[in-house]
């Protein structure tokens, strides 16, 4: 047993050292899929950790109560909650008005909350720029200020009255912009808006004839018992009771779409990685047929041969899982930043066990799925056939031969090259199918871009910003991986077709016809992949996309399809023409007969 293990290890190290470029390609392909999956899974931490830090720094409430009434009836509805069982502290009630604010020519829905200059026991917003409230000024929630381009010292209009911006602050008593919860007094619908604070003495003047509502912040003996408290307090309070967990979930919605896009993209990248790894592995296994024969000749069985091959790819897969895991965890806070309404940068913590297991499992699945078929075929190959290392004769069909004889020379060469290696042609189809699917899904996402309505002004949608960031990451990673797959497939096809092209040239084909024939061999299987990728991409976005959808113009889809085919043709053209101009004698002499 020890001797066999030593043999496996020595062959593994030897293969990794002798084929560094192919090993790097395998690591890149698997790392791309595991890194994207890790990035998607890590987005929960990207949203949760800054919220936890902000909640601790601002003495965030455990439950926030907002009555459905106004004036004295609202105060009467909130009064019983301060003495309810389980409540250990509170702040407020604070007066609230639902007004509009004008800044830099934009008028937006604004929740205006009246506060005292002295800090409260529960919900102490942290000032990130400038100072806290005082008469005659306004403090703007930081994410809202960023969206409007407002800074300390600017002037804004709150319901027509000019106020100086004293500073910006963050809180966890309300969801961050744009989900502060703006309500029209004549409607029960909650609309998008931002939050500002003014001095308690100013809010009645700002509200004018509009009735004031109120908000109450509660601290519980058990912060995790918010849901139970809400259930028990429903009979005492005719209004909305929000737990800190619910507010945290609303803040997390900013990255929800981005996370879903990355998770779906990671599975598409996994399929693309399997296609790419399969192409590399097939070439490596074919190149080792003589070694398989030698192993069998000295007594190794099919299981031993399979272990020798699989061990290398499992080691590569595990190494790629580590690289992808590290890359995804490091990229998450940098690429998908938390809301500006929360404090600080994501702190460094060990990844969740579920994230590590998912990344490693995906890497192992990719390595195993891509290598299993060629490895099993090699393990059960005939010893004599493996030692001879002879090329596998093509499967001929009479109807194919009769049909191909009537085709132009270029098309004939392309079809016959694919007929000799049908599995490689299918890999080209898969590569273009997945590439086109993702590109069409990105076009669908851009077609959904619409102004973000905040009452009177259109602002940037922060959820759309983060989804665009995630799709940009996914598109770049997929583009690199698809190009690597295309290069590997093309170069493998060039090496494998040297002798058939040389034979075709001895029978009268020109170097140009031979080169174009090899290019056709790569483009023919790409066409069905592109044709199927367009409806698959549209359907995929329809399944995961929210609400009513708009479709991109046909010209966008046509340009995408032609672009994918043109890039494939460009990648094929240079190596194909180089191979076609090689002297016939050299090509025939360098290939086993």
UniProtKB/TrEMBL annotation:
Pfam annotation, one family: FtsX
Mode of membrane association: Multi-pass membrane protein
Entry superkingdom: Bacteria
Keywords, sorted A to Z: Cell membrane, Membrane, Transmembrane, Transmembrane helix
Location in or out of the cell: Cell membrane
Family: Belongs to the ABC-4 integral membrane protein family.
Protein name, per record: ABC3 transporter permease C-terminal domain-containing protein
Organism of provenance: Actinophytocola gossypii
């Amino acid at each position: 047993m020890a001797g066999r293990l030593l043999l496996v290890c020595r062959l593994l190290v030897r293969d990794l050292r002798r084929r560094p470029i192919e090993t790097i390609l395998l690591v890149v392909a698997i790392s791309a899929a595991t890194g994207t999956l890790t990035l998607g899974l890590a987005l929960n931490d990207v949203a949760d950790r800054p919220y936890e830090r902000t909640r601790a720094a601002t003495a965030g409430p455990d439950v926030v109560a907002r009555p459905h009434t106004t004036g004295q009836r609202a105060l009467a509805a909130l009064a019983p909650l301060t003495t309810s069982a389980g409540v250990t502290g509170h702040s407020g009630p604070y007066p609230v008005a639902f007004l509009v604010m004008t800044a830099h020519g934009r008028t937006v829905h604004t929740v205006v909350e009246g506060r005292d200059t002295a800090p409260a026991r529960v919900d102490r917003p942290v000032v990130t720029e400038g100072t806290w409230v005082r008469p005659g000024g306004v403090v703007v929630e930081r994410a809202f200020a960023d969206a409007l381009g407002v800074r300390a010292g600017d002037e804004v209009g709150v319901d027509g009255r000019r106020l100086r911006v004293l500073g910006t602050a963050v809180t966890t008593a309300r969801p961050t912009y744009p989900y502060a919860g703006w309500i029209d007094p004549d409607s029960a619908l909650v609309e998008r808006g931002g939050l500002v604070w003014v001095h308690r003495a100013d809010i009645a003047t700002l509200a004018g004839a509009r009735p004031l509502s109120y908000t109450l912040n509660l601290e519980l003996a058990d912060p995790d018992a918010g849901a139970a408290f809400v259930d028990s307090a429903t009979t005492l309070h005719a209004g909305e009771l929000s737990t800190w967990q619910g507010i945290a979930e609303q803040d997390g919605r900013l990255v929800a779409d981005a996370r879903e896009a990355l998770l779906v993209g990671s599975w598409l990248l996994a399929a693309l990685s399997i296609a790419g790894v399969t192409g590399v592995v097939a070439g490596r296994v074919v190149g080792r047929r003589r070694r398989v024969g030698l192993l069998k000749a000295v007594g190794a069985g099919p299981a031993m041969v399979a272990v020798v091959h699989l061990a290398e790819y499992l080691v590569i897969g595990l190494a790629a899982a580590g690289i992808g895991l590290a890359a995804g965890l490091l990229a998450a806070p940098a690429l998908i930043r938390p809301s500006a309404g929360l404090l600080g940068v994501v702190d460094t913590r060990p990844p969740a066990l579920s994230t590590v297991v998912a990344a490693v499992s995906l890497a192992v699945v990719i390595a195993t799925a891509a290598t299993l078929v060629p490895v099993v075929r090699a393990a059960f190959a005939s010893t004599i056939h493996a030692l001879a290392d002879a090329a596998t004769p093509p499967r001929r069909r009479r109807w194919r031969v009769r049909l191909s004889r009537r085709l132009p020379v270029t098309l004939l060469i392309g079809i016959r090259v694919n007929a000799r290696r049908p599995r490689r042609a299918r890999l080209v189809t898969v590569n273009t199918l997945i590439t086109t699917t993702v590109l069409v899904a990105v076009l669908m996402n851009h077609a959904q871009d619409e102004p973000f309505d905040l009452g009177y002004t259109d602002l940037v949608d922060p959820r759309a910003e983060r989804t665009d960031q995630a799709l940009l990451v996914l598109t770049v990673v997929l583009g690199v991986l698809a190009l690597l797959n295309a290069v590997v497939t093309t170069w493998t096809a060039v090496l494998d077709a040297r002798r058939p092209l040389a034979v075709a040239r001895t029978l009268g084909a020109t170097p140009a016809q031979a080169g174009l024939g090899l290019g056709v061999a790569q483009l023919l299987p790409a066409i069905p992949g592109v044709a199927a990728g367009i409806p698959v991409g549209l359907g995929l976005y329809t399944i995961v996309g929210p609400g009513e959808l708009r479709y991109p113009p046909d010209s966008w889809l046509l340009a995408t399809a032609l672009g994918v085919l043109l890039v494939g043709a460009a990648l094929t053209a240079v190596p194909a023409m180089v191979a076609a101009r090689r002297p016939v004698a050299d090509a025939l002499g360098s290939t086993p007969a």
